[in-house]
């Protein structure tokens, strides 16, 4: 048997109030839907897929593709994307113009770098799309059982499933397409479906087949099955389905309860048979999937403005150059006899200077094009791919349990991870793992359970540290609160839980974290109220709807329950000795004792309780009830009250008669009648006790939230759960804490649907928002913290245009925000409001298909790639296996990527301005002749080879301290003051490089023989100074060095000399004017080496002075930490290191640390109060007559 489990075959629908007794009418008697007109044209021939091979009945295949390109569209679409960028488009035009004689360069000096840059970018796009293709292949290659014409079943890949196929899906498998349920392993044709991938809900949905198809419950009976489905056309609505089934000359109406949607999972059911209705992109889940919007980081958008600025500068100096050339042509050209002014060419004709200036403008635009860094985009692409690979290969973000690593699904937003201001998170499956642990209980007024919460333990430890720092002795660390011992030393009490003498701690039990020997191992019989305890355990074991499963390997029962807290109650009952082991159609068995189930009153959000009426072996009728008491303790525990009532036979019989009438009624008031019937019997209950269960968060969630809060990030929780559940989770993960003021914005029920009633509701909500904003702003308590809690109904009004900014203003002022009962669309709208309203970077994280809209709307979308499908991941920009990995993704990788990319871009513009302006200076110096001072090969190699590797090293390997995350949020490294500072540095360097070189070389001998330098010697010397200056500059910029940086920086300088030597040795037809230039001209000349040294020092001197004064007078956080690390003060003085590190953290009012701080303040106030009382009593005792 699968996984060693045994399950009894039951009619499970009998266990639920909505399914215990069906209405007296048969489904076949219900009127069929009127299927006609537009939108209702689909016809499916069941078990006859061959009928759908030709149009008009030929429908889409079940093949699914999420790629952006295919073999035909890749080149045109990718080229369009590349030349959408302003810089690439400019260089494309420049490459075309370089073919004509007007170009000052060799055409290949423009074409080759462009082809290289665009080709690499296209290869990166192809690689990312290939990964999407591989993921599609895996999904399409999944297999399912498809019915054959001979009556058997065989395995077939999902992509080959066709409309009309009958498929068999087994337990824990995903449905390959949208199916009509025919039958299941249960006699009454129901099955249990998990729709987490569709709507994010983990509670199981009950689907039911038509009674007419119940007989189709084995492979043989399906052999001659034939029917026709006429239904709606493909549409994205998950919760509606309109259609008819024509079978055996009868027509049966179909509803959403009969449809099994693709990507939902079969649970608690051995198998189902279904017929395929929609396939591939026609399925509802694919109809809901939207193409990922094109997202660009803020840095990239700012970079566009810088490119536009440089283009304006390029056009400006080109206009100056062309105007200068026109001036020279008109006034000075006639005096230049060597240009033959008596027989002028068109470009040097003094009689037509305007024409000469216009033509020269084209030359100038090409000549000064090196102001625009052609290799910037490709260098950034390379760096981002490397950064993405670091994320993908980070073992600290690898989940050992699921074997799932982190994945950067796009590398375009790496730096955006370092600028996040607000995180919008789903709850179910993202923060929680849907597991409850039974932790404490109270029975007959006595509390049981000695385990403390993490908050209380941490608070006590911190208090102990604080007291030690003040020189006070701490004698023990025990249980809650604080006491004083006889010697006057303080004693911090923290419950450790369990038996301290037990050296062999028990193995953790899923759902059971209770520790108290008074109730374990039958010790409860020696308590003062054993009968109440017995009744308490019975309620735990009987009042539920779960199904037991025997694990043959362990010999223990596990439970499939409607909710995780119900499973934890059964685990607790089992450990207390009241093991629920069997359920039949009418009974439950607790060990050997049988209880007849007479009625089950299901939990509803209105009643907030559930009850079961049973008859025990003595014939006594008992009503057992459990319900929420709306209380959440400081430890964030969820509590339920347990009660019971004994019923006599006559009362029960009378009530049951009325209740059965309500259950069998048909009409819109059926639910209301059931509510009234339940309330009639659920009265005069005897309270037995209460349970306290811990909502099991995913591993590391509180710690992750705490670290993110300290980094200055805000967290909003958007959940479809009810408000009570969301509040519980808020306490559990420290978004809420005791003492935090909760602002609950709710809407009153409108009287009817009139405009006046809706206006009254809006005014009421607006009034609540206004009062809340005033309360927050007028509060003067520095420790005050506010939490905003709002439900989906109220949010509908709050998100309207005339109110949404008041809502946002309140939310921004609150420490935490929880939105409950929100729809997927509302999640996306809230995300858009935060993104557009605050103007800050937003990140959305979720794990289900209901989170896709939110993930796509946010600046950054993160999907949780757990074991429950891939819808959120497919729509995301980054995927991780657990929420706790978000801390490292943002605080480490995000911060590093931001700083690396920001410094890299600033440096790129610096070096290109420093290089490009020297061309302008030389042209002006030579009478705007259009002549380049540099050889064409120098121009070709500058961006692509000689300066590209160090900048890539900066973008890939630069590191600093992750604790400085707020530097990215405040954009310290890429604001306009920083950008303009780097540009000014580039202008200064260009002036120094050009004029110092001209001043040194122009008017004196260059070689020992007295020869002066020609243009090639001047250009090569100037180019050498540029190579040295920009590489020394990047070395000064880096704060983290490895051997790789040293090799790439100094190796680039060495590569320049190597190129001069080797290329200069080639025959003159190839090397041209630089033949043997290093060996014979430059190397023997001392002035060449002196100029290189002098110019390089002068070029970087202002930057050295700037960083020296900044570190001395106004150091940034990373400067201080860097010096502490360099002088190893962090090892010698741990307190100094801790203090300086804490300065970089933001003060926060949420998270584990804030909760511990609040607990410390509470304990400290109790200690001070107790100390003052003791001092008062001591003073009174000293003044008493007895002491006198």
Kindly state the number of beta strands. Answer: 37
Residues in helices, as a percent range:
40-55%
What kind of assembly state do the chains in view correspond to? single chain
What is the percentage of strand-forming residues? Answer: 15-25%
Low-confidence stretches: 1-29, 472-503
Q: What is the rounded distance between the termini? A: 86 Å
What summary fits the major beta sheet? Answer: 9 strands, mixed
Characterize the overall form: elongated
Structure, explained:
The chain has 1188 residues and is of the alpha+beta class. Helices cover 44% and strands 17% of the residues. The chain is built from 36 helices and 37 strands. The strands form seven sheets. A nine-stranded mixed sheet has the order 15-37-36-35-16-31-34-33-32, sandwiched between helices. Helix 11 packs across helix 12 (564-575), helix 23 runs parallel beside helix 27 (976-1001) and helix 28 (1015-1037) runs antiparallel to helix 29. The chain is elongated. The termini are far apart.
Kindly list the characteristics that best describe this protein:
single chain, 1188 residues, alpha+beta, nine-stranded mixed beta sheet, nine-stranded antiparallel beta sheet, 36 helices, 44% helix, disordered N terminus
List the helices and strands and how they pair.
Blueprint (H helix, E strand, L loop, with lengths): L4 E2 L10 H4 L21 E5 L27 H9 L3 H12 L9 H34 L2 E5 L5 E5 L8 E5 L7 E7 L5 E5 L1 H4 L5 E4 L18 E5 L11 E5 L2 E5 L4 E2 L4 E3 L3 E8 L5 H5 L9 H35 L20 H15 L8 H17 L14 E2 L11 E6 L6 E12 L2 E3 L5 H16 L4 E4 L4 E3 L5 E3 L37 H13 L4 E5 L5 E4 L3 H12 L4 E4 L3 E4 L2 E9 L7 E7 L5 E12 L4 E11 L1 H15 L6 H12 L4 E12 L3 H10 L3 E5 L4 H10 L8 E5 L9 H24 L7 E6 H7 L5 H10 L2 E5 L3 H15 L2 E6 L5 H6 L2 E5 L6 H5 L2 E3 L4 H41 L10 H11 L1 H10 L8 H4 L6 H26 L13 H23 L5 H22 L3 H4 L5 H6 L3 H28 L3 H10 L2 H4 L1 H10 L7 H33 L5
Parallel strand pairs: 16-31, 16-35, 19-21, 31-34, 32-33, 33-34, 35-36, 36-37
Antiparallel strand pairs: 1-22, 2-9, 3-4, 3-5, 5-14, 6-12, 6-14, 7-8, 7-13, 9-10, 10-11, 15-37, 17-18, 17-30, 20-21, 22-23, 24-25, 25-26, 26-27, 27-28, 28-29, 29-30
Helix pairs in contact: 2-4, 3-4, 4-9, 4-24, 7-8, 7-23, 9-23, 9-25, 10-36, 11-12, 13-14, 15-23, 15-36, 17-19, 23-25, 23-27, 23-28, 25-29, 27-28, 27-32, 28-29, 28-32, 33-35
């Amino acid at each position: 048997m699968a996984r060693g489990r045994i399950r009894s075959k039951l009619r499970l629908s009998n266990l639920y109030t909505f399914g215990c007794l069906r209405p007296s009418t048969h489904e076949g008697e219900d009127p069929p839907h009127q299927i006609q007109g537009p939108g209702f044209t689909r016809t499916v021939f069941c078990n006859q897929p061959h009928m759908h091979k030709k149009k008009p009945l030929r429908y889409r295949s079940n093949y699914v593709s999420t790629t952006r390109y295919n073999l035909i569209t890749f080149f045109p679409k990718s080229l369009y994307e590349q030349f959408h960028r302003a810089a690439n488009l400019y260089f494309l035009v420049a490459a075309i113009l370089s073919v004509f004689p007007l170009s000052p360069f060799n055409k290949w000096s423009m074409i080759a770098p462009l082809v290289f840059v665009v080709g690499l970018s296209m290869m990166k796009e192809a690689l990312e799309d290939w990964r999407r293709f591989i993921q599609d292949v895996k999904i399409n290659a999944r297999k399912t059982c498809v019915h054959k014409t001979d009556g058997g079943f065989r395995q077939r890949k999902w992509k080959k499933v066709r409309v009309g196929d009958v498929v068999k899906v087994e337990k824990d498998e995903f449905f390959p397409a949208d199916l009509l349920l025919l039958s299941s392993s249960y006699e009454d044709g129901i099955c249990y479906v998990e729709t987490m991938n569709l709507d994010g809900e983990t509670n199981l949905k009950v689907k039911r087949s038509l009674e007419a198809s119940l007989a189709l419950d084995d492979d043989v009976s399906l052999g001659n099955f034939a029917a026709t489905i006429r239904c709606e056309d493909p549409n994205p609505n998950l919760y509606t389905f309109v259609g008819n089934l024509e079978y055996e000359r009868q027509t049966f109406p179909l509803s959403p309860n009969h449809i099994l949607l693709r990507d939902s999972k079969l649970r608690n059911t051995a198998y189902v048979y279904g017929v395929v209705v929609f396939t591939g992109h026609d399925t509802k889940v694919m109809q809901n999937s939207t193409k990922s919007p094109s997202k660009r980081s803020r840095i990239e958008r700012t970079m566009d403005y810088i490119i536009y600025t440089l283009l304006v500068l390029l056009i400006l100096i080109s206009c100056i150059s062309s105007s200068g050339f026109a001036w020279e042509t008109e006034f000075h050209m006639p005096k230049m006899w060597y240009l033959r002014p008596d027989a002028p060419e068109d470009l040097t004709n003094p009689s037509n200077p305007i024409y000469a200036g216009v033509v020269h403008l084209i030359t100038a635009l090409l000549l000064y094009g090196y102001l625009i860094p052609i290799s910037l985009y490709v260098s950034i692409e390379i760096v981002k791919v490397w950064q993405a690979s670091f994320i993908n290969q980070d073992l600290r973000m690898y989940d050992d349990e699921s074997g799932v690593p982190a994945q950067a699904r796009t590398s375009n937003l790496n730096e955006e991870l370092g600028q996040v201001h607000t995180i919008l998170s789903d709850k179910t499956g993202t923060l929680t793992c849907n597991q409850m642990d039974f932790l404490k209980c109270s029975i007959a007024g006595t509390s049981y359970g000695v385990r403390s919460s993490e908050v209380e333990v941490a608070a006590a430890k911190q208090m102990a540290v604080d007291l030690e720092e003040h020189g006070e002795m701490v004698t023990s660390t025990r249980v809650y609160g604080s006491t004083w011992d006889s010697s006057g030393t303080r004693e911090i009490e923290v419950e450790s839980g369990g038996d301290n003498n037990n050296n062999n701690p028990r193995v953790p039990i899923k759902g059971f974290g209770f520790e108290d020997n008074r109730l374990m191992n039958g010790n409860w019989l020696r308590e003062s109220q054993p009968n109440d305890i017995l009744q308490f355990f019975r309620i735990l074991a009987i009042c539920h709807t779960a199904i037991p499963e025997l694990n043959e390997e362990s010999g223990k029962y596990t439970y499939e329950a409607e909710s995780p807290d119900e499973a934890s109650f059964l685990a607790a009952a089992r450990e207390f000795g009241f093991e629920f082991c069997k359920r039949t159609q009418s009974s439950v068995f607790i060990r050997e004792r049988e209880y007849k189930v007479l009625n089950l009153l299901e939990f509803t959000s209105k009643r907030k309780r559930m009850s079961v009426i049973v008859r025990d072996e003595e014939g006594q009728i008992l009503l057992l009830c459990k319900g929420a008491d709306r209380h959440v303790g400081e430890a964030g525990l969820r509590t339920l009250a347990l009660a019971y009532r004994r019923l006599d036979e006559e009362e029960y019989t009378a009530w049951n008669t009325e209740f059965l009438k309500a259950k069998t009624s048909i009409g819109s008031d059926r639910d209301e009648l059931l509510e009234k019937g339940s309330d009639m019997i659920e009265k005069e209950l005897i309270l037995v006790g209460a349970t306290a269960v811990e909502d099991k968060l995913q591993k590391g969630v509180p710690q992750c939230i705490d670290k993110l809060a300290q980094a200055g990030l805000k967290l909003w929780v958007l959940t479809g759960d009810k408000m009570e559940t969301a509040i519980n989770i808020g306490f559990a993960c420290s978004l809420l804490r005791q003492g935090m003021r909760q602002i609950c914005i709710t809407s009153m029920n409108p009287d009817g649907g009139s405009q006046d009633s809706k206006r009254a509701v809006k005014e009421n909500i607006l009034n609540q928002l206004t009062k809340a904003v005033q309360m927050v702003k007028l509060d003067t308590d520095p420790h005050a913290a506010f939490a905003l809690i709002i439900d989906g109904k109220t949010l509908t009004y709050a998100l309207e245009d005339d109110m949404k900014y008041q809502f946002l203003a309140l939310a921004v002022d609150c420490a935490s925000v929880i939105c409950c009962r929100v729809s997927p669309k509302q999640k996306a709208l809230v995300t858009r409001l935060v993104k557009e309203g605050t103007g800050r970077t937003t990140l959305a994280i979720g794990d289900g298909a209901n989170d896709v809209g939110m993930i796509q709307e946010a600046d950054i979308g993160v999907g949780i790639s757990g074991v429950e499908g891939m819808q959120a991941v497919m729509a995301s920009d980054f995927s991780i296996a657990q929420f706790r990995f978000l801390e490292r993704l943002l605080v480490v990788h995000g911060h590093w990527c931001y700083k690396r990319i920001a410094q890299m871009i600033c440096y790129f513009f610096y070096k290109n301005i420093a290089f490009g302006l020297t061309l302008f200076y030389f042209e002006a110096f030579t009478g705007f002749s259009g002549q380049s001072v540099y050889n064409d090969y120098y121009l070709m190699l500058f961006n692509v080879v000689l300066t590209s590797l160090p900048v890539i090293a900066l973008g890939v390997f630069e590191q600093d301290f992750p604790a400085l995350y707020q530097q990215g949020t405040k954009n310290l490294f890429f604001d306009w003051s920083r950008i303009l500072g780097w540009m000014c540095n580039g202008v200064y360097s260009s002036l120094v490089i050009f004029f110092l070189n001209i001043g040194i070389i122009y008017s004196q001998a260059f070689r020992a023989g007295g020869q002066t330098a020609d243009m090639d010697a001047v250009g090569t010397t100037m180019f050498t100074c540029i190579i040295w200056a920009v590489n020394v500059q990047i070395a000064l910029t880096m704060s983290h060095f490895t051997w790789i940086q040293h090799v790439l920086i100094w190796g680039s300088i060495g590569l320049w000399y190597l190129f001069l030597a080797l290329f200069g040795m080639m025959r003159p037809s190839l090397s041209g004017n630089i033949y043997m230039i290093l060996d014979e001209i430059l190397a023997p000349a001392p002035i060449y080496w002196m100029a290189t040294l002098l110019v390089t020092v002068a070029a970087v001197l202002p930057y050295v002075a700037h960083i020296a004064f900044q570190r001395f007078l106004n150091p940034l956080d990373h400067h201080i930490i860097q010096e502490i690390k360099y002088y190893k003060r962090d090892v010698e003085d741990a307190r100094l290191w801790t203090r300086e590190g804490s300065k970089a953290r933001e003060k926060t009012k949420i998270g584990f640390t804030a909760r511990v701080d609040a607990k410390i303040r509470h304990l400290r106030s109790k200690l001070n109060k107790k100390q003052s009382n003791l001092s008062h009593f001591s003073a009174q005792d000293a003044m008493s007559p007895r002491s006198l």
